[in-house]
Design brief:
single chain; alpha/beta; inorganic pyrophosphatase (n-terminal core); Diaminopimelate Epimerase, Chain A, domain 1; 2 domains; six-stranded mixed beta sheet; five-stranded parallel beta sheet; 12 helices; 11 strands; globular
Length: 318
């Protein structure tokens, strides 16, 4: 099995580089830190990298201050966690530096492109952190509180507090093992969902007045000028899109965020039965059936028009 092959590759390596995807979420950070800290228990030398900063709400996690944007040096193996495509590793993955090294791909996205030398992709897992827990146990590494906290953070955030359709008995059992190992569920939940700055509240107040809703699709634009006005960078709140999807009659929610360099980040959520990952993949992105996204070149207006046309096709038969 791929899990066993991953475990073998990690046990044989001494210097290990772990990279997660750009614009990291709680599962990306949690799975990377959890794996990194676990491997250090075996005496491995580990570097953890992500092109973009760790979101403020996850800086409480053990090891978060060690994440660097642009790794260099010599390694025996590179591990990708929670990324469906090698391009999602961004500038943290230097092909000229690391392209000849074994690349171990650990991910749970159904849209994963199997880009690694060894690929362990399990779309049945609710979070990549759930898979990392299996790997840690497979390798016989003691499950200590620091590791458990990081992995529980990944599971809690990717399941939206155990509310997503892919939350299974296996997921809940994994969360229970992590709590037994010392992770504090209340603390993890608090950082995941209850820590918002006043600037985020101001952002929501402005955006909610501009929300549009048509034929089951609810959406809003997040212009760069508004983020600059409020002094918000790339690290801003992720809870709005789930709030929008909770509106009665909404089948799909979308947020269009203007990025530097003429790009727009498109975040998509949907109710069970509507697969937004199909739209994301068609437009060069990826994700899960109920949570997906993509980056597109163009203005907010151009990208909004393109994506909404695809979403309307998706919802018209539901």
């Amino acid at each position: 099995m791929s899990k066993e092959a991953i475990a073998k590759g990690l046990k044989e390596a001494n210097k290990i580089l772990i990279i997660t995807h750009v614009d990291p979420d709680g599962d990306a950070i949690g799975s990377m830190l959890g794996l990194g800290l676990a491997l250090e228990k075996l005496g491995k030398k580990v570097v953890m990298a992500c092109q973009d900063p760790v979101p403020k709400q996850f800086l409480y996690l053990p090891g978060s201050q060690r994440v660097i944007p642009y790794p260099c040096g010599s390694f025996d193996v590179v591990v990708s966690v929670d990324a469906n495509d090698i391009t999602r590793l961004g500038k943290a993955y230097h092909k000229e530096l690391f392209g000849d090294l074994p690349l171990l791909n650990i991910d749970h996205h159904i849209t994963n492109l199997h880009f690694g030398t060894v690929n362990w992709v399990d779309p049945q897992a609710a979070a990549t952190s759930e898979m990392v827990l299996e790997l840690v146990e497979e390798m016989g590494i003691p499950l200590e509180p620091d590791i458990a906290t990081c992995l529980l953070n990944g599971i809690v955030t990717d399941t939206q507090g155990f509310r997503t359709p892919n939350t299974t008995v296996k997921t809940l059992e994994a969360a229970l093992r992590l709590q037994k190992a010392g992770a504090n569920l209340h603390r993890v939940m608090s950082y995941a969902f209850n820590h918002h700055s006043f600037k985020i509240l101001q952002l929501w107040s402005k955006l909610l007045g501009q929300v549009q809703f048509k034929n089951g699709v609810i959406w809003v634009r997040k212009p760069r000028s508004l983020l600059d006005e409020l002094g918000l960078g790339e690290d801003n709140d992720r809870g709005l899109i789930n709030f929008l999807l909770g509106v009665e009659g909404a089948k799909v929610a979308a947020i269009f965020t203007e990025k530097p360099g003429g790009e727009v980040d498109v975040s998509l959520r949907s109710i069970p039965g509507i697969d937004v990952s199909a739209v994301a993949v068609k437009l060069g992105g990826g994700g899960h059936p109920q949570a997906a996204g993509c980056h597109l070149k163009g203005s907010l207006e151009e990208v909004e028009k393109l994506v909404l046309e695809e979403l309307q096709k998706l919802t018209q038969n539901h």
